[in-house]
Amino acid sequence: MSDEFMRRAIDLSERSVEAGGGPFGAVVVKDGEIVAEGMNRVTLDNDPTAHAEIQAIRRACDLLGTFDLGGCELYASCEPCPMCLGAIYWSRIRRVYYANTREDAARIRFSDEDIYDEFSLPPEERRIVSLVRVPSARAGDAFERWTRKRDRTPY
Question: Of 14, 53, 73, 125, which one is the catalytic site residue?
Answer without folding.
Answer: 53
